[in-house]
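Colleagues,

For the teaching module next term, I've prepared a clean inverse folding example: a structure given as tokens, and then the sequence designed for it. I'd like students to try predicting residues themselves before seeing the answer, so please don't circulate the second half yet.
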């Protein structure tokens, strides 16, 4: 009997220690990331062909927009349409650890089509300040920073319809912002945004962590409790849980048209998470939604893998669902 109890105690201790190690690994992967500098991201985008330096020579306006929620300044780069009458305004949000240099590849085609362009360094990234709320919060608090940016954009480009484009963290932020920018029950004339293009978002951070654990072949009896432990810790130290950072919940709480684009070779944030958002939104009848999968594209590389398909889907969506022109 004593032997059985001893063995059971040792096994329980080993399980507990392993669980703590797993939770620490998950926590470090989520919140121990190194944010790249502006110069590093610029150089990498040049090397990969994602950034045309000629775009940098255009008359960009750099401003700092104060975010009351985070008590910090957000760096915004605005380019007025180069002709007298731009058709709309595109606002682009980059992914985790990156900067606005990663957004040029999305904005370029809109600039060519005479749209105003607005690029943002997400909070704590690039030239933006971290503020009083730790970053990243995976869209949960970033959506309030985006709301401050939208207010500035509305004043800078009045009467120019706005379309949000986000990549990964930026996509998740855009979707979580949807109920603020286009609230349910509000008339379209009051919306701050007319459409969202979300490239490789997660349905929630809890789902993203589970998917990553599955990819790493971490047994569920370690992965799920470790994720719950991390969620418990950040709920009590940062004011939200992993389940609260939910683009799916945002997509279900706003009628704004949504286009989801995802690479089918994404093993970091699987395309299944975008498919889940699309299916749930259709089931709920929350608003227009489309899903486009880019064959062979890894995480955040859909537009690089097949830019023709990416922009064709984007411009058709903007014309069909948002009623905006995207002609050269």
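(Answer key — instructors only)
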């Amino acid at each position: 009997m004593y032997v059985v109890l001893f063995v059971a105690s040792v096994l329980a201790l080993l399980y507990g220690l392993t669980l703590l190690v797993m939770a620490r690994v998950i926590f470090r992967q989520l919140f121990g990331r190194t944010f790249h500098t502006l110069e590093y991201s610029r150089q990498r985008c040049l090397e990969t062909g994602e950034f045309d330096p000629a775009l940098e020579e255009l008359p960009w306006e750099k401003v700092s927009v104060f975010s009351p929620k985070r008590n910090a300044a957000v760096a915004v780069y605005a380019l007025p349409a180069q002709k007298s009458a731009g058709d709309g305004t595109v606002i682009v949000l980059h992914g985790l650890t990156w900067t606005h240099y990663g957004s040029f590849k999305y904005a370029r085609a809109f600039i060519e089509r005479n749209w105003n362009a607005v690029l943002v360094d997400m909070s704590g990234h690039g030239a933006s300040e971290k503020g009083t709320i730790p970053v990243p919060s995976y869209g949960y608090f970033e959506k309030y920073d985006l709301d401050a940016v939208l207010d500035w954009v509305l004043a800078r480009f009045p009467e120019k319809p706005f379309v949000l484009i986000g990549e990964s963290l930026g996509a998740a932020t855009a979707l979580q912002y949807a109920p603020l920018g286009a609230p349910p029950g509000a008339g379209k004339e009051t919306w701050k945004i007319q459409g969202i293009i979300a490239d490789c978002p997660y349905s929630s951070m809890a789902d993203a962590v589970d998917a990553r654990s599955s990819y790493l072949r971490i047994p569920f009896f370690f992965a799920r409790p470790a994720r719950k432990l991390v969620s418990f810790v950040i709920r009590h130290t940062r004011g939200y849980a992993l389940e609260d950072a939910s683009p799916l919940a945002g997509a279900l709480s706003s009628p704004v048209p949504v286009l989801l684009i995802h690479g089918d070779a994404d093993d970091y944030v699987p395309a299944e998470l975008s498919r889940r958002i699309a299916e749930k939104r259709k089931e709920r009848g929350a608003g227009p939604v489309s899903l486009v999968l880019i064959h062979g594209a890894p995480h955040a590389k859909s537009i690089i893998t097949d830019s023709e398909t990416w922009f064709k889907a984007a411009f058709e969506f903007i014309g069909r669902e948002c009623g905006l022109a995207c002609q050269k």
